[in-house]
Prior knowledge:
By secondary structure, the chain is an all-alpha fold. The protein has helices at residues 3-21, 29-35, 41-65, 71-92, 97-116, 129-146, 151-160, 166-188, 197-218, 223-248. It is globular and about 45 Å long.
Amino acid sequence: MSALILALVSGAAIGLALGALGGGGSILAVPALIYLLGFTPAAATTAALIIVIATSITALAAHTRDGNVAWRTGALFAAAGIVPAFLAGAAAGHLPEAALTTAFAVIAALAALRMLKPSKALPPEGIRPVRAAGAGAGLGAVTGFLGVGGGFLAVPTLVSVLGLRMRRAVGTSLLVIVVNALAALAARAGTGADLRWELIGPFVGTAVLGAWDGKRLAARFTGRTLQRTFAFVLLAVAAFMLADVIVRA
């Protein structure tokens, strides 16, 4: 199968997951870019940021139209992550490939376990600004370091720490993701990574289209069923990446 077809199929699958889950699907972009399209880990995490930004902006526009974005809350949350995202993005380009792949696999596994565990929302009066700032900084660091959007972390954090309702948290998380990803991408500018735009472009295009189909898919199944299915897929991907690192060592 040609690289172009693989890019189209991968983008569609990841867009489908993003549309159905409202976040989290982009974490599959990095392993798809590495193992299906032959990107190096450093180039894959940089390319993934471009994919995350394009798909998140598209989804953010749709959620804005529906009134599901808390702009002030999202802006404050995102602001805490800008510097960590920039610093982590700059540091990631200097790490050995094995270390970057291992870190990504561990975070993917933790994200999957987080998805399998029911979230416990706190009432609005339980919100703590310091805790919210810490969560925003941590999310920015993860985004910059691993090239993922972080929706799998942002949504539960916005619900449990900031007291947003689920639908509004999903929309607001997209704003946070865009800001953090832009900061991380700026830190990686000029690193000389081979981004292979002839593959990234089609990948982004089918991811955006797949996200719209994902919304329709979400209407046919419960959110919990979709989330659990995705979590098990993510665990399998993480296990494969760790096994690959061990074999290559």
